[in-house]
Every structure is written in structure tokens, then in C-alpha cells.
Amino acid sequence: MDIHHRFHTDQSFRWVRAEAALGLASLVYLLVAFFDFVNWSRFLFAFVAIDLVGYLPGAIAYRMARGRLSPADPVAPPIRIAPIYHHLYNLTHSFITVAIVLGLWWAALGEVEWAMLALPLHLLGDRSLFGNTYKPASLAFEPEPPSAPHVSPPAALRPSLAPGR
């Protein structure tokens, strides 16, 4: 990838996931090593809040939109939802947002704490374990296999509404 070729090959995507897995393993090691010093209620709240705000609303909207489509339609168009859901996901799953939240958390508490690892751990887990990064609004909110462009079947293949045919 470079400034003119902004996409991943299978190999470069595996490298990105491997780097995130190394970061994830490092943070998990720290959590285990300092287990007794972690405020687990704050950790759990921070870990879950990312998806409560950024993922769950889009997942619900996606599933509701999917329910409105005919599952029997072999050429159904990709499921689309409002772009705000993609933007919420991207905002909450950004290391920039995590840095800002951690800075505010630190300022409010007056010190750093081990529970703060929940935020980068969540993002590194999503990237390494699930391969999730940002969600472009031009794609479906949930992973869908690539498909051919939506094309209506030829008239000869469409079911006729005329009786007896």
C-alpha cells in the first residue's frame, strides 16, 4: 500500500492483523500480570461501551433492513443502512478517539489505571481476531461476500403473473 494504492492484498492484510495480535497479546499479558490492580468494573464498562455506542445501533439497523428484504430474491441488492451508523462505528473504533478518551479519563482521575487498557485492547482484538477496521459507508455494515452488481433477470426468466403460464 502507498498513497496511490490504498487497499490491502491478502498478505498485507494478514500482516496488519498479525501486528494487532502482537499488541493484543502484550496488553493481555499486562492485564494478567497486574490482575489484582485492575478496577474490573471500569474495565468492563470501557470495553463494552465502545460497542454499545459504535456497533450495536448499526447492527440492529442492519438486521432490521435485512428483515425487510425478500430472502427468496436471488439478486437482492446489498443491504444498506444510514451512513451515520458507519460513522459512529468508525468514531468509537478509532485510536484517535481512544487517545482522547484516555486523556480525559486520566485528567478526571488524576492518574492512569490498568482498566484503561480496555480501550486499546478492544480495538486490537477487533482488528486481530475479527479483521475489523473501519466501515466505509459505501459497503454493507456487516460483512457480506462480494457479489455481482445488482441486475434484474432477463424478462424470459421472470415469473409471469398471467394465469396458466
Can you describe this structure?
The chain is mainly α. It has six helices and no strands. The chain has one domain. The longest helix is centred in the N-terminal third of the chain and has 24 residues, at 10-33. The radius of gyration is 21 Å and the shape is globular. The relative contact order is 0.16.
Poorly predicted sequence stretches spanning 5 or more consecutive residues: none
Number of strands: 0
Approximate helicity band: 40-55%
- β-sheet strand percentage: under 5%
Order of helices and strands: HHHHHH
Overall pLDDT, averaged? 87
What integer value in Å does the Rg equal? Answer: 21 Å
- Summed up, the helix count is 6
The biggest beta sheet reads: none
Distance between the termini: 55 Å
Broad structural category: mainly alpha
* Mass-distribution shape: globular
- The total number of structural domains is 1
